[in-house]
Design brief:
Blueprint lengths: L8 H10 L12 E5 L2 H6 L3 E10 L6 H8 L20 E8 L3 H16 L2 H8 L8
Antiparallel strand pairs: 1-3, 2-3
């Protein structure tokens, strides 16, 4: 589904998870890349953020995206870039669904837990050239 990020995470959750975009697309069943941030989670009346499954950092772009593009090219080194108000060691990334979709959230959480435990999750990241950091 086409999606350009809004001005805030609240915009993204509204447009992609619980209401849909005013241009007519969405909402999706699951937003796969949502920051697992307690103040954000507590502020959501319409979205449920859960299943932390990856630790993200910023390196003049999202580190995971840079790693994926560079694919281990030794000429480039991706290092975390300090950003005000962002944790220096990265932040947990999880998923988001409509607040009422608790069965879907539970099923996805169980799957993520299983994939993390048996190393399938780290294998997917490795296959795509992205170092995996447990959330």
């Amino acid at each position: 589904m086409p999606f350009n990020a809004g001005e805030s995470m609240e915009d993204d959750l509204r447009n992609m998870v619980w209401k849909g975009h005013y241009l007519g697309f969405g909402p999706a069943d699951v937003l796969m890349n949502a920051p697992v941030d307690k103040p954000l989670m507590d502020s959501q009346k319409q979205a449920l953020i859960f299943a932390p499954n990856f630790k993200e950092t910023v390196a003049a772009g999202n580190a995971s995206e840079l790693h994926s593009v560079l694919r281990g090219n030794k000429k480039y080194k991706v290092i975390p870039m300090p950003i005000p108000r962002a944790p220096r060691n990265g932040w947990a990334v999880g998923m988001a669904v409509k607040k009422s979709s608790t069965d879907l959230a539970a099923a996805l959480q169980t799957t993520v837990n299983s994939m993390s435990k048996d190393k399938r999750l780290s294998s997917i990241f490795e296959k795509n050239g992205v170092p995996w950091g447990a959330a």
